[in-house]
Write a structure and sequence with these properties.
By secondary structure, the protein is α/β, with parallel strands linked by helices. It is built from 18 helices and twelve strands. A hairpin with a 2-residue loop joins strand 8 and strand 9. The chain is globular and about 105 Å long.
Length: 535
Amino acid sequence: MAAKKKTEEKMNLESILFKCRDILRQARNSGSFFEKRDMMLTLVFLRFIGEKFEDGIQKLRQDLIAQGLDPDDEEIFAAFFDDATFTDGTYNLPIEARWSTIINTPAPQLNVALDTALHSLANSSKQLKGCFVEGTFTTRNLAPNDIKKIVDEVNKISHKSFGEEKDLIGRVYEYFLKEFAVNATKEEGEFYTPHDVVQLIATMIEPFDGTLYDPCCGSGGMFIQSADLIQAKQGDISRINVYGQEKDAATYRLAKMNLALRSISHNLGGTYDSSFTNDLHKGIYFDYIMANPPFNLKGWYDSNLQDDGRWADYATPPESNANYAWILHMLSHLKAMKGVAGFLLANGALGDSDTVGIRKKLIQNDKVEAIIVLPRELFITTDISVTLWILNQNKKGGSYHGRTLRNREHEILFMDLRTWNENPVKNESKKKVRLDADQIQRVADIYHTWQNEGTDGTHYEEPELYRSVGIAEIEKQGWSLIPSKYIEFIDHDLDIDFRAEMSRIQAEMRDLMVQEKQSQKMLEDAFRGIGYGID
């Protein structure tokens, strides 16, 4: 029984990371939260890329044997293994960068060996260059016993057990946000988008081919999880090319690491920088945009942005809040007549008074297609309810992913999912809920049915859930995009028959009075029976 318990503990990713966290907390020179996180993510990356290489070599051996060749023959070995190439994106690692080399390095030499591995990887591949800070481990110079214990723990993490599902680097990143992040707020940009939320956006806009862009890509989780959905639906992630930008240097490296690990072709620009002050993909237009920008971001504005072309047709967004700057930035990168964007914003953006002019033009120009308010507590670092916006450059109809779409001009679909909080996530330090697969499909079906030919948009609604609304009604509401202004919410008290209810209550009161009188009489009779008078 003890052996079984030990095996289960070993196979639990969070228990391994918990041990690593405790080792780093107690270790001398382990650095800040960000340095601890980056060391762990770099180690996990080395572990996984090394294991993929070992699996690739093993498969290559099996393929040669199946062809009647001896992989141990000197000439065969030299021809196929000295400079091995792989068709699935696996990297051919130099000896010093292989996990088998690292795990067998004596503890006193580990810090140097790890930095040697990073330097070797950076020089062997353009895709891997810029993924890490060379000198990470020798700069921190953890004690031999500490770095050895951490490497041994990371060695327990196998992609066979953990990496085939969703976004493993993202899961490690999310764990360290939860456990370490004192300053990991949404406004600071340290934020990880849960898998169910990414799946919801991807299921709705269907980014199955073409180009996909995220202007604040963080750890690359949007790309990773979208690739998983593409593989599930289409089976070929080579049909999508991803572009992104990230302002934070460490997170930029993390995204490159994450995408390289999953062999996803990507262009994150040549460096880390702000999408507002230095748009690294200026002049490029994308088929799809998926994003989770920092909510209500302050300090985004620069005086050089006053007459920026991205808001030339609208107005300069408020300096105090970047929500509408993000909207206009993404709109400026959508392909004309076909681009679709799905992104998250704080609910305040639905009706802010200082952005009503921009919002009015977005609606009049028919850019807003759907507004979906999500349940509270979907995210780890904030418990607020947020909104999923969908912009579409073509609401006129036509063919889209095998569906025939109707003309939806001057209509917007509103949904309110705030009551969908019945799926709590267990073993979290704070209350958290999730959207399950059936709920995600339900939302996508509502949206796709509304889009499809044959649907009457003027009568498309379900009270307390969704409603299609025309521009005239939105104008009457002062160009507000708050769903509760349009979706019918039933006052269930109106279903009560008050006359019948009052009659029932009066009857119950009469019965109680009769019972009270009967009890009083029984008590009087009892006292008289034993010789006491009752005044």
